[in-house]
Each structure stands twice: as structure tokens, then as C-alpha cells.
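explain this:

___
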Amino acid sequence: AQPFRMAIEFERSIEESRFKSPLEGFETVTEAVEHRRDPLTGRTARIVSEVFPHPDDSGGTDLEAVVGDGEDCFFCPGTVDEATPEYPEAIGGGRGKEGAATSFPNLFPYAKHSNVVVLTEEHFRPIDGLGADRLADGLACGLDYVRSVREHDGSRFASINMNFLRSSGSSVYHPHMQTMADDHGTDRQAELVRREREYHNEHGSRYWRDLLDRERGGDRYVGRTGDVEWLAPFAPLGQYHVAGVVGAEGSSIPGEDDAAAIAAGIENVLQYYAEQGLNAFNFGLRLAPEAPESTAVVDIVARAPFGEHYVSDAFFAQSIHGQTVVDAEPETYAADVADAF
């Protein structure tokens, strides 16, 4: 692990790769590779040219034709009550409901407590048709589940996550979220909690509050929805990464107003993605309610556009080396995302 930096420093360096390019008549060309270090964790990201499979490369697939009409989809009305599990009595039994959203245990759990939240009765909606209300209902279901399992079992970590379309890792077209809660957390959750605690012990203040104080008015700051503030992180986790800081002043589980504000911000980011011709994404809202120095943050990244000939944007750098590689500098897209807020 990288040594912890006890201040908010934006470290970057640029190296040059030189070669004789057949695209330039074998003249010598120079390509830049930029290295950035995350101010909190020391995680590094690389910014290189033309690594992301942009929309023109996706094949122009008619999504409606691919996703079909929902026949045999076990998340669609008429099937969801027969094909999905029910909660144990210890956390209320049955299934959860909020607006159009329905929640139930994950048949293939990723954690001790793991659920699925189906967002819509419609079999499919594109990213610019999900809508803040539906996203808020889904988040509310996920947060209710976190509260229930914590009351029953005291889980230290939780997250609410979403994959959308197959290039993001989703195996089901019907829009849905997934919640996880346990005492382990993910590697990144555990690392962030440790770093947040170290930062607070050194400075007597919360990292995310200090970061927002540094970034407001700058070229990576995006805007605000309710009490949630949004920015394009200095060392992105993925392409067009946008983060929403939910709990800059505390680590409690977000409430109803926070869920609505998070959903409004997600809708804005998805609108920006759609305007870029993008159609797939991941997001994750991470929670550590027993860690008083920690902050609830939601991260959203665009994924390779799904199409007939789509190419994954996750390759050996991510799967083997745990290294982020993108071609969009946050300073170049933050202002455009802000226009959607």
C-alpha cells in the first residue's frame, strides 16, 4: 500500500512514449501518459489517449430489439412474486415496496445480507428514462434494508449498487439495484474507512468536507442537489467518474431527503452520459455508519457503450493490476456535467 499523505495534495506526473507511427508515415510521434494519485488513499490512475470504446464503436444496436418485451423475465410483474425470494421473518418477511420499486433477498447473495431492488414495472428503460423518482424509490428500498439488517445483525459496512446493461456487468436487462451489508465490506470500503480515520486523527476534520472546501469553484466541482455535493474526482475510478458527497458532516445512514437528493444527482449525471451517446454505467453508494470519521459517498462511472459489437473497457489493467485507466481528464468533463445540474 502507498504511504498515507497527511494533507490534500493533487499529485500528478506526465511521461512521454515515443515511437515511429504508421499513421504518420513512420515519423516519430510522442504520446503522453499521465499518472495521478488519489489524495486520500494513494491509489493511482492513468490517463491515456483513446483507451475508452466511445459510442461510435458500439455497433449502433437497437436496444429495444435486444432487451425484448420481458417475456420470461423474473423481475417483471406477474413473475416477480413467483420467482424471487422473500425476506426472513427476523427482518420483516415478505418483500419490500416503495413506489414502483420492489425489493427481496438476492437469490445469489454477494454478502451475508444481500438484496435486489427492482426499479420499474416496465421491463426496460434507457438511462435517460430511469428518472429521479424511480431511482429515489430504489435507494429508499435499499436504505430500509440496511436499517433492518443493522437492527437485526449490526453490520458495519453496507453499499447500494447498480449495473446497467451487459457491458457494465449486468446479466438482467430489467433495471435493478443490489444492496450488500456485512462486517467485512469491500477492500475499497475498508481502506477508505481506515484512511478517513487517519486523516481525521491528524487534522481534526473530515476529509470529504476539507476536499469540498478545496474543490468548490474549481474546474472539477460539478454542483449540488439538496445537501449532496458533486465533483469529478482528481484520480477517477473509471470513465467520466462523478462522485456525490452525501454525509460531509456525519456518517449516519442517509434519510429520505438524502435519497431524493442522491437520485436527482444520479439522474443529472445519466442525462450527461446519454448526451454523450453512452448507455451503460455502474454506481455504488458506500456506507460505514459505525465509523464516525467516515462519509457516505456515491460514485458513478460510465461503462463501454452496449451494442452488437461492444468491447469491454475493463481489461488487464483493472482485472489483474487493479489500475484505473481512462482517457477523459476530470477537468475536461466536469463543466459539461455541471450543465446538467
